[in-house]
Amino acid sequence: MAAISRSKPKRLLSILSSCSSISSSSPHSYDPEADRNETLISTAISILKEHRSRSRWSQLKAILPSTGIPPSAIVRILSALRNRPHLALAFFTFSRCNDLLSFSAAAHIAARSRLRPAALRLLSSAVRLYDSPAIFETLTRTYRSFDSAPFVFDLLILAYLDAKKLDRAVYITRLLLSRGIHPLLSTSNSLIRSVAKLNGSDAGLGLYQELFGSDNPRVSPNVQIFNTLLLALYQDRQSDRVHEIRVEMEKLRVDPNVFTYSILLAGLCEDGKRIREAKELWDEMAGKGIKPDIMAFNAMINGYCKAGEMEMAEELHRDMVLNGIDATCTTYEHLIRGHCEVGDLETGMVLYKDMKRKGFGAGVEVVDEVLDEMCKRDRVDEGLVILRKEMKREGFSPSRRSYEILIRGFCERGMMEIAAKLQAEMAGRGFEADKKVYDAFVEGYRRIGDEEKVMRLCDEMNHMITFKESVTEIH
């Protein structure tokens, strides 16, 4: 991966040293309003620090002016309470102030006291009310005054991510990088993951270059960062590019973990054509003393099933159970489909019943494989019973293929009335009859000798094909 250069990062405090602090300057002439504010501030601080929790809020409310506490006074009071963070945050809530300076002061107090959830909540509120440059500059300007912690800026990035404002999160990150401040690795990981999810793996790799692209970066990526990149490539079906990531990991001496291997195995096993490479990777993982997890086992089982090597898939399944790892819904789905695809319906049905007994619900693709194999064995009635039971399960909807398989099966047996009812149900779910369905009905009626319906269906099918061709030409 190409490296990028960046100026040597500066220390955070040196960058912020020129920022102004929160202070009260003495006026050149007597100002009654300022004098009243000073009295209000000192009295409020005294009440908050010295009175019991039950009485302090009522006494504080009694001294407040009808217009409430001025934002500048709130910041001064928060500054005085910064070593008592819970009290300071309670006062901020009491003040009901939405001023950006007050938000920043409260966030700094929470951050310096490692009250991460509280700081994140405050910044999440701020990002809904103010523009990103204003928030960043206010946090920077008040940083030293509250002796804050650097990760307050990470929390600002995370607040934007939580608010689904990815462009603002990236903008703040670039502002930090331009000032020599690097986000925490966990924050960088969240950013890369969000960018890759929304804009694709190429965008995720581009952000990685911005964050870690220097030849001698101050902060080196960890295995979680690389796992995020590998997962993004896998989800974008760019598994052929994972070699770039592995080379980068080796260059930076970042050791893969079990999740790394699980993603790599999933990419190799996706279609079963690279199962030998997957086995080499599996052996490499074992050689490093890394025990496979359920994701790794499921990936390899899927690869063997796709390759039609069911004995190896079952052997891995047994090894998994012996190692104390319970089979998941995905494990069962791989095995059921694998056995059905090689024509072993009986073993597939044993696994299907075991899966149901354990409370797992099969996906529609798995159900379709079972239906298809049942229809091939003239067990279409059983297939319909299975589909009806699955349809009672919340979240399950039959596919077009589900209906096509059963319609074909009943038509092959000459049971046209049931096939017609299924076709009507299919249409009610928005699946129009296509050539496969028409062909099934034509053969079915021909089998029972009803040539009149055969001719009528052939005419309908020809009209349908002609209409679809004309629509295609128009578009």
CATH topology of the largest domain, what is it called? Serine Threonine Protein Phosphatase 5, Tetratricopeptide repeat
Number of helices, counting only DSSP H or I runs of 4 residues or more: 26
Counting DSSP E segments of at least 2 residues, the number of strands comes to 0
Helix content: over 70%
The CATH architecture of the largest domain comes to Alpha Horseshoe
Broad shape? elongated
Low-confidence stretches: 2-21, 23-28
Quickly give the structural class: mainly alpha
The radius of gyration over CA amounts to 33 Å
* Average pLDDT, all residues: 88
Keywords: Repeat
PPR repeats: 257-292, 293-327, 328-362, 363-398, 399-433
Organism: Dioscorea cayennensis subsp. rotundata (White Guinea yam)
Domain PROP1-like PPR: 347-466
What does this structure look like?
With 475 residues, the chain is mostly helical. The protein has four domains: 1-17 and 37-181, Serine Threonine Protein Phosphatase 5, Tetratricopeptide repeat, CATH 1.25.40; 184-252, no CATH class; 256-362, Tetratricopeptide repeat domain (Serine Threonine Protein Phosphatase 5, Tetratricopeptide repeat, Alpha Horseshoe); 386-475, Serine Threonine Protein Phosphatase 5, Tetratricopeptide repeat, CATH 1.25.40. The protein is 70% helix and 0% strand. The protein is built from 26 helices and no strands. The protein has helices at 12-16, 32-50, 53-63, 71-80, 85-95, 100-112, 116-129, 132-142, 151-162, 166-178, 185-199, 201-212, 223-235, 242-251, 258-269, 275-287, 294-306, 310-322, 329-341, 345-357, 364-376, 380-391, 400-412, 416-428, 435-447, 451-474. α21 (364-376) packs parallel to α23 (400-412). The chain is elongated and about 105 Å long. It starts with 11 loop residues before the first helix and ends with a helix. The model is unreliable at 2-21 and 23-28 (pLDDT under 50). This is Pentatricopeptide repeat-containing protein At2g15980. InterPro entries: PPR_domain-containing (IPR052308), PPR_rpt (IPR002885), PROP1-like_PPR_dom (IPR033443), TPR-like_helical_dom_sf (IPR011990). PPR repeats lie at residues 257-292, 293-327, 328-362, 363-398, 399-433. Pfam families: PPR_2, PPR_long. Keywords: Repeat.
